Amino acid sequence: MKKDFISAFLLLTVFAVLSLVLNILLYLIPGIGISTADFIYPLPVTYLFFYGCSFVILGLLIFVYYKSKEQLGYLFLLLTAAKMAIAYAFGSSVINMQEGNSTEKINFFVIFILFLIIEAYYTARLLNKK
What we know:
By secondary structure, this protein is mainly alpha-helical. It has one domain (1-128). Helices cover 78% and strands 0% of the residues. It starts with a helix and ends with a helix.
């Protein structure tokens, strides 16, 4: 159990750090001309929020895998729905923003999808494990 736990969180942490660095570097390219200074939430805060959600989800999935493997898919769906609700509450000011550029909206959804891919990948690995 410890090996699965450590590998999942190591993968998640490396992914989050690399994604954040690449995202910050993307906005530093002079030709793009987009500044993150007018973002409602700074990039590290957004990444930290989604990292925390994914950390909890992966922890619960690993715990349930060893207790009741049959319920793993249902738990994933429930936790993903809860994460979407929490993400909407967290990012409602970004999502409902009327004026300004849509860069922060796109960035918010891309980060959400990237972390969702990691969660789905790890859930599939757990479900296919024999």
